[in-house]
Design goal:
Blueprint lengths: L1 H15 L6 H15 L4 H31 L1 H12 L4 H38 L4 H17 L9 H9 L4 H26 L23 H21 L6 H16 L13 H7 L2 H34 L3 H19 L1 H14 L4 H17 L9 H12 L6 H31 L1
Helix pairs in contact: 1-2, 1-12, 2-12, 3-5, 3-7, 3-10, 3-11, 3-12, 4-5, 5-6, 5-16, 6-8, 7-14, 8-17, 9-10, 12-13, 12-14, 13-14, 13-15, 13-17, 14-15, 15-17
């Protein structure tokens, strides 16, 4: 009960953030209490750090890359092109915005998509003079797709990185399993979103209200460098995977290249176009502290009783066949993430799967089902993921307030069919490539 009490208080502080208290500070405080009272031991710190360090620094590097490219105008340029491709047809623009969100989530993580795409889409909607109801449909879509399509690559979600490192899954193998599953999730997301907002999507809009995409480019050199840097980064992930090179090292190298380009001095102006101080200030340094602190708190909870109970449940699910095991693990992970937050929920699931007495195929299905559940399950509630909390914060700063009741009314309708589709796709696909 002591371990559970520490976890609950820590989670409340992380979500509430009283007087601007950072999530990392709250998590470290909970970890410190857990150490003092003996819920966790000093050797556990090294165990947890070994689990989270690669994921944490990969995430920070991805956000740095995202913020630099955003400062250069890369994402505004892309969004304006997409808006023009809509050709004045709102029902064509809606799926295009969803597809743009899926691409950004895949390569810049779900948090990057929530942080970058939301304000850009809102600015475009304002320029197009969409009604509040129509704007809300597009805003909800960008927030939802950031998580529902964060499955395909290890780098697409912090959950993916932690899980892949915990079970020693290579970048290549993970992509081979999850890219097809993500495509199914994307298709289901499009269908569900389009059906739910069918009466709110405007039939037409005035393309002439949009500025030319080229006007969005603020740093031409960084903008032009983005394409070869991102292409090289993607290739490097696959090339270095068999060599065991940490994902953080590959991603960090790309971030350093962009930092060097963005920080150059211009002879004429004597200053940089991109403010690196603003970029580094906007980087999620609190995530580093949160990853270590929160995982230590959860590790202590797992040591106390949660891991044993969860592994017993998974062992029972595994005895019911692969379909029940896949669906059961995914749904259980999703529900746990929605009330616990998906970061600690991921570790609980990983520790439980590691101890569950199941066959090899069932175990692998459970590993990926745990990822799917923790990527999609957070959409049930606002506290399910940091990306959702970040998204709501960005909206509030832009003057759009979505209550928890409003959010859950939408999330409880949107999430179940997409979650079910992704889990069924995994159950059908994984045995085909494992034989």
């Amino acid at each position: 009960m002591l371990a559970f009490a520490i976890f609950v208080v820590t989670l409340v502080l992380v979500i509430w953030q009283p007087k601007g208290l950072g999530i990392g500070t709250s998590a470290l405080g909970g970890a410190a209490v857990a150490l003092v009272v003996g819920v966790v031991q000093l050797p556990d710190v090294l165990v947890v750090w070994d689990i989270v360090w690669d994921a944490t620094f990969t995430f920070v590097a991805l956000i740095l890359i995202s913020l630099i490219l955003d400062e250069a105008g890369f994402f505004s340029w892309a969004a304006l092109h997409v808006a023009r491709w809509g050709g004045g047809n709102g029902r064509r623009l809606f799926p295009l915005i969803v597809l743009l969100g899926a691409v950004i989530a895949a390569f810049f993580a779900n948090d990057g998509a929530a942080l970058l795409l939301t304000p850009i889409v809102m600015a475009i909607l304002l320029r197009l003079k969409f009604s509040p109801q129509s704007s809300l449909a597009f805003i909800i879509a960008t927030g939802f797709v950031a998580d529902s399509t964060s499955l395909p690559l290890i780098i697409s979600n912090l959950v993916n990185i932690v899980s892949a490192n915990f079970f020693d899954i290579s970048f290549n193998h993970y992509a081979m399993v999850m890219v097809p599953v993500d495509l199914v999730s994307l298709a289901a997301t499009l269908l569900v979103l389009t059906w739910m907002f069918r009466s709110d999507i405007p039939k037409e809009y005035d393309v002439e209200r949009l500025e030319a995409p080229s006007h969005a480019i603020r740093d031409p050199l960084v903008f032009r460098a983005a394409f070869p840097v991102l292409a090289t980064l993607l290739v490097a992930f696959f090339v270095t995977a068999p060599l065991g090179v940490p994902v953080a090292l590959v991603t960090g190298s790309a971030a350093l290249v962009l930092v060097a380009l963005a920080g150059r001095w211009h002879q004429a102006g004597g200053s940089t176009v991109i403010s690196l101080s603003r970029v580094f200030k906007g980087a999620p340094w609190q995530i580093v502290l949160f990853s270590v602190g929160m995982y230590l708190v959860v590790y202590g909870l797992g040591n106390a009783w949660l891991t044993e109970d969860a592994s017993a449940l998974l062992t029972w699910l595994g005895q019911q066949g692969t379909l029940v095991a896949t669906l059961g693990t995914g749904v259980a992970s999703a529900l746990l993430a929605s009330i616990m937050n998906n970061m600690p929920s991921t570790l609980v699931g990983a520790l439980a799967i590691d101890q569950a007495q199941v066959g090899d195929l069932t175990r692998e299905l459970m590993i990926y089902a745990n990822v799917i559940g923790n990527d999609l399950g957070p959409k049930f509630t606002p506290i399910g993921s940091l990306a959702t909390l970040l998204w709501l914060h960005v909206l509030a700063e832009k003057g759009t307030h979505i209550s928890w009741g409003q959010y859950m009314k939408v999330g409880l309708k949107l999430t179940p069919p997409v979650l079910l589709a992704a889990l069924l796709a995994l159950w059908l696909w994984l045995p085909l490539i494992s034989t």
